[in-house]
Amino acid sequence: MGRLDEKKKKKREALLESAYELFTSKGVFDTSISDIVKKAEMAKGTFYLYFKDKYEIRNELVTLKAGELFRIARENLQKQEHENLEETVIHAVDIIIEQLNADHTLLEFIAKNLQWGLFHHVLLEGGNEVSTSFFDWYSELIQRSGRKFRNHEFIIYMIVELVNSTCYNVILHGEPVGLDELKKELHQLIPVIIKNQEV
């Protein structure tokens, strides 16, 4: 990478970092592009060299943050052997939940901004290298199971929506149950979701 490319990369990263800090402290709606460039100590015109608007930078951040969650889950899972598909998926969910529990700011950002259309782009259409490799790994896992499913993409959708919607209040407010109890429920529901899609 040349010096010019490195400089561009650093500017882009500074904009992403500033946007994330503002989005997680003020919210996306109350953050302006002027706020982002001021925090990044750049001219407003510089922002538009990299992003169309604040929603594009938000989507990029969701892509990066979600991709990182999946990367860590995948790396941890590769270190261990699991008996079956259900056990592997449950373990992946536990790893992701623990990451969100350790970083409440990330949990709030992901929970408020991860919609299915964006998730589909992140995970299933190659939103970035990290997430693509996770979906490749998941597809390989399905293939290795020797089982047939009507729609293995729908399995991921259901599980992500379930985890995303239930973790928010449980982790941040301890309601309506504690995290250990939620995990027990998820451990029972995930095999049902997988089984219901099996042909």
Helix-strand blueprint:
Blueprint: H1 3-26, H2 33-40, H3 44-50, H4 54-77, H5 85-102, H6 104-113, H7 116-124, H8 129-145, H9 152-173, H10 179-196
Total of helices: 10
Mean pLDDT: 88
Q: Which value, in Å, is the CA radius of gyration?
A: 19 Å
Unreliable parts: none
By secondary-structure content and strand pairing, the structural class works out as mainly alpha
Q: How does the overall form come out from the CA principal axes?
A: globular
The end-to-end span amounts to 49 Å
State the major sheet. none
How helical, in percent, are the residues? over 70%
Portion of residues in beta strands equals under 5%
| Secondary structure tally: strands | 0
Note the run of SSEs as H and E: HHHHHHHHHH
What does this structure look like?
- This protein has 199 residues and is an all-alpha fold.
- Helices cover 79% and strands 0% of the residues.
- It has ten helices and no strands.
- It has helices at 3-26, 33-40, 44-50, 54-77, 85-102, 104-113, 116-124, 129-145, 152-173, 179-196.
- The longest helix has 24 residues, at 3-26.
- It starts with a helix and ends with a helix.
Provide key terms for this protein:
single chain; mainly alpha; 199 residues; 10 helices; 79% helix
Q: What can be said about this structure in brief?
A:
The chain contains 10 helices and no strands. By secondary structure, the chain is mostly helical.
